[in-house]
Amino acid sequence: MEVILAEHAGFCFGVQRAVDTVYEQIGNREKEGRPIYTFGPIIHNEEVVDDLEKRGVRVLDSLADACAVPEGERGTVIIRSHGVEKSVCESLKELGFDVVDATCPFVKRIHNIVEKESLVGKSIVIVGNAGHPEVEGIKGWSAAATYIVESVEEAKNLVLRPEEELCIVSQTTFNYKKFQDVVEIFGERGYNGSVVNTVCNATEVRQAEARELAARVDVMIVIGGTHSSNTKKLYEICRQECEMTYYIQTLDDLHLRLPESVRLVGITAGASTPNNIIEEVQNYVRINF
Ligand code: SF4
User: From 3.40.190.10, 1.20.1250.20, 3.40.50.1240, 3.40.1010.20, which CATH number describes the 2-11+202-288 domain?
Assistant: First the structure.
């Protein structure tokens, strides 16, 4: 029996980079002895966060949390892949923390665009979900009027001055088609300015690959947390293509009895599933079937 692991299973590039940064800092601390914090959980995966906690990495959920850290314990604080507002970085530095910025370079690119364009007087439109930490972070790099719109309706109803020049960007995980639809509305309303496509296709690539793999295997295993919406989506996509699709969180959930006829097993995983879990499942299936 052959086992095929999807190339883009699990962490995307930006999340992997942020998690690696934390482990690197743990290695450095052994030399320097300074405490390590992450600004918000580095990833929405309990196993990873618990493991980091065991290694002494603490989570700061807000600037208030950072202020509450006694001065002598203000060590390194790592910014996660979503990024943060410029003012948050500055405040952390003022409080005496060493800031290690693990903002995904694709998100950082948006910060740079927003800062530059707002400084030349353009109003910023972020197409995305207000309240999402990435969007809040992006907004915090703008020096001009900034609007967040999530739908065509909101774009139609947004109150703007006639002379406003716009720079339109998008949250990285926003659907590209919806982004285009929103952009079109501003065009129809006669607004000038620049549109920068800042959608990251990591999620789409993972889904397209899962669909293609599920269509050619006999059994498909999808690994991810039960609360992970992107894993649920992966499961639905795979189930459409392959009737024998299983959704598991970890190896412990895998109770497979495979028919003799099974020749090919495919594996994919949601965006917050760590590599070690994927490897465990992959090795188990290879060895036991
Ligand atoms: Fe991952 Fe893309 Fe977000 Fe970066 S921008 S963290 S690669 S999904």
Answer: 3.40.1010.20
Q: Which residue has the higher pLDDT, 170 or 34?
A: 170
Euclidean distance between CA atoms 60 and 119, whole angstroms? 31
**Residue 208: pLDDT over 80:** yes
Q: Which of 20, 81, 204 to mutate to test the pocket of ligand 1 (most atoms within 8 A of CB)?
A: 81
Packing angle, helices 13-32 and 46-54, rounded to 10: 10
Distance (angstroms) between ligand 1 centre and the Cα of 245 equals: 26
Q: Whose CA is nearest to atom 2 of ligand 1?
A: 200
13 in ligand 1 pocket by Cβ < 6 Å?
Answer: yes
Contact 269, 222 (CB under 8 A): yes
Q: Which two tokens stand for residue 222?
A: 């999808």
Which residues form the catalytic set? 134
| 14-104, CATH topology level | Rossmann fold (3.40.50)
Average confidence (pLDDT) over 272-279:
93
Prediction pTM value: 0.88
Residue 81 CA, closest ligand 1 atom number: 6
Q: What is the pLDDT of residues 110-158, one digit of tens each?
A: 999 999 999 999 999 999 999 899 999 999 999 999 999 999 999 999 9
Tell me what pLDDT residue 199 has.
92
Cα(106) to centroid(ligand 1), Å? 7
Distance, CA of 22 to CA of 101 (rounded, Å)? 10
Which atom of ligand 1 lies nearest, measured to the CA of 12?
Answer: 1
Amino acid at 60: L
Find where tokens 């190896």 sit: 251
